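Researcher: We are triaging several targets before committing to wet-lab work. For this one, the compound of interest is 2-oxoglutaric acid. I'm pasting the protein sequence and the ligand SMILES. What I need is the predicted three-dimensional arrangement of the protein with the ligand bound, expressed as structure tokens, so it can go straight into our comparison scripts without reformatting.
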Amino acid sequence: MRDPDQATSVGAWILPESNKAKMELANPEDGVSKVFRVHGDSVFAEFAHSAAVVDLVWSLITPDIDVFLSQFIFKTAGAWGQPWHQDSFYFPFEPARPVVGVWLAVTEATLENGCLQVLPGSHTEPVHTHVADRRPGANHGYVEIVDHDMSASEPVLMQPGDLLVFDSHLMHRSTDNESSGIRAAMVYHYAAAGTVDHTDEYVPGLDLNDWVPARRGGRPTPPGAAA
Ligand SMILES: O=C(O)CCC(=O)C(=O)O
């Protein structure tokens, strides 16, 4: 069952920010790390189904595509970064690939406010072992790859509106927000239509994924269309 304290009336699911030691809770969103499952809602749906985005994803996933996950990441001042991981660790799917992440910068993403960092070429790696984030008071669900050399990693500095498209095996992380402002992002994940999702067998009732057609018959599917 979804935690009723974390579920909202529109089906969104809220992950609280745990690094409260470093945060001033001046605003309600300061206590929120991520809001999941928003791709059925207004502007988030419009973006997820827009031709500009879906056609870009189609260069990597063909022919038919579903959008299955969305997250608005607040990352307010003092919030934790997310340790090195591969998104496919969270996706027990059949087939396991292709899965593509689309990361939209809502604010500037800088070294100081905790931009993404990626390890170029690591999308060719299998999914590595992930251990629980070892920091005391780490955010729920954060995990870490500790068996790989990340010294060739590169930061991804972004301006608002910039989009990063990446394979679900790419190793990436973000660092803590050491700035005094918010570093917000909107993240969507897409997979081939017909993908079988086994998440419920591993985490019964988690209910984060919501599979929605994004491209059918050679064109983007509008929000709300039946599968
Ligand atoms: O935006 C961030 O700080 C981390 C996001 C991320 O790594 C993810 O969603 O997989």
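Researcher: Any quick observations?
Model: Residues 71, 73, 75, 81-82, 87, 114, 116, 172, 174, 185, 187 surround 2-oxoglutaric acid (CB under 6 Å).
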